[in-house]
Amino acid sequence: MDVPLGAESLEPLPFAVEPLPFAVGDAVQLKGRPNYLKTADPMPMLRPPDLVDSDEQGQVLAIKARNQLAVRFRRGTFLLEADQLQAAAP
Fold it and tell me: N or C: which end of the chain has fewer CB within 10 A?
């Protein structure tokens, strides 16, 4: 019995690829204060973490590589890991 062409691609990948819990346009908040903030500019810079308040809401602008999200807050747009964020309370 011949295996149909492309059937080998139906096997699971050797590593887990989890979908991100956020989509572009979602409102998010920081879970805690990071050590620093990285700007989402073409030439990123490290900024102090006090630019974003702990209860401040931001909006996801883009999904980047390696579970990073570009999030716009009141004082700028920063690159943050998805696990540093939580959904904003309505």
Answer: N
For 27, the token pair is 């409102």
22 neighbors 82 (Cβ within 8 angstroms): yes
Whether this model's pTM surpasses 0.85: no
| Domain 20-87, architecture per CATH | Roll (2.30)
CA distance 72 to 37: 12
User: For residue range 21-76, what is the model confidence (pLDDT) as tens digits?
Assistant: 889 999 999 999 999 999 999 999 999 999 999 889 999 999 998 889 999 999 99
Q: d(Cα 80, Cα 36) in Å, to the nearest integer?
A: 10
Spell out the domain ranges in the chain: 20-87
| Region class of 25: left (phi > 0), else alpha (psi between -120 and 50), else beta | left
